[in-house]
Write a structure and sequence with these properties.
Elements: H1 8-11, E1 26-34, H2 37-46, H3 73-88, E2 92-103, E3 112-123, E4 132-142, E5 147-157
Length: about 160
C-alpha cells in the first residue's frame, strides 16, 4: 500500500490550475469571516497608522462612519484575498501584485465579510508547461449586503502538466 503523502494530488485540490480559469468567470467563495478585535486594529498599530479611528474607542462617537472603531483597510483587503485563496491560489507559484484597491464602505469589528471573484485576464506562460498569469478582481461584501472592498490581484498559476 502506497503512502498517501507520496501523491501530491492528495495535498492539492483538483481544481484551480491555470487551465481552469477564463476571462469573465465569476465565483462566490464558500466561506465568510467575522472580523475580530486583534485582526481589525492590530495591523494599524503595527504599521504605525496614525488614523485614530482604528484604535481610539471614543474617536468616532457621533460620526457618520458609525460609533465604533474602523477595521484597518489592508486587513479588510487581506481577509477578502484570503477567503478567495482556496479557489484562486491553490496552485499559485507566485503572487505578482495587488492593484486598484478601493475601500468602499466602513468595516467595524464584528462585521462578517464574504468574498467574490471575477477573472479579469488569463495570459499563458512561454510554453505549454510554464505557469501563466491570471488577474482576478476580488470584492468583499458585509453581512448587510454592502460592498466594502474591491481590488485586483495578479497571480502566477501552475498548469496541470507541471
Amino acid at each position: 500500500m502506497a503512502d498517501h503523502h507520496d501523491n501530491h494530488d492528495v495535498l492539492l485540490g483538483s481544481w484551480g490550475w491555470f487551465e481552469d480559469f477564463h476571462p469573465g468567470q465569476k465565483m462566490r467563495h464558500s466561506r465568510a469571516a467575522t472580523v475580530g478585535e486583534v485582526e481589525g486594529s492590530g495591523p494599524a498599530k503595527q504599521v504605525m497608522n496614525t488614523a485614530q479611528a482604528h484604535f481610539n474607542d471614543h474617536f468616532l462617537k457621533g460620526s457618520p462612519l458609525g460609533d465604533e472603531r474602523l477595521v484597518f483597510g489592508l486587513a479588510t483587503a487581506s481577509l477578502v484575498y484570503g477567503l478567495a485563496s482556496q479557489d484562486t491560489a491553490e496552485h499559485a507559484s507566485a503572487e505578482l501584485g495587488w492593484s486598484r484597491l478601493r475601500f468602499r464602505a466602513p468595516v467595524h469589528h464584528g462585521d462578517t465579510i464574504e468574498a467574490f471573484t471575477e477573472v479579469v485576464s488569463v495570459t499563458p506562460g512561454d510554453d505549454e508547461v510554464s505557469p501563466g498569469t491570471v488577474v482576478f478582481r476580488h470584492w468583499g461584501r458585509r453581512q448587510d449586503g454592502r460592498i466594502v472592498f474591491e481590488g485586483e490581484r495578479s497571480t502566477l498559476i501552475r498548469r496541470r502538466s507541471s
